Amino acid sequence: MEVKLSPELANRLARAAERRGVSPELLAREAIERAVDHDDRLVREVEKGLAQVEAGQVLSHEAVGTSLEQKLTERPATCTADTAHLSEPSLAVDWDRPEEDEAWEHLQNRK
Prior knowledge:
By secondary structure, the protein is mainly α. It has a domain at 1-58. The protein contains five helices and no strands. The protein has helices spanning 7-20, 24-54, 61-74, 80-95, 98-108.
């Protein structure tokens, strides 16, 4: 199998692989595996949800609101692990920018 990448994406992949100390091929293979696994899980969960709807296992809008309200009031005001997890996609976008590579370049040259 051969996958064609735009020059921009190929450059981003090469930079990300270099930062991680792996080959671009390995990084691409791992990314594809994660994407396929994610899609498989998503399809399974959607199918599970559709089966629950067909079986009449549904909640009213009010019941969902009540459950959500209870969960939010029971939870501590700040949860560092959740905040870090939710920030990851935003940070990942920033990490793949050329200016980020430039900012870290001085650390790589100290070796």
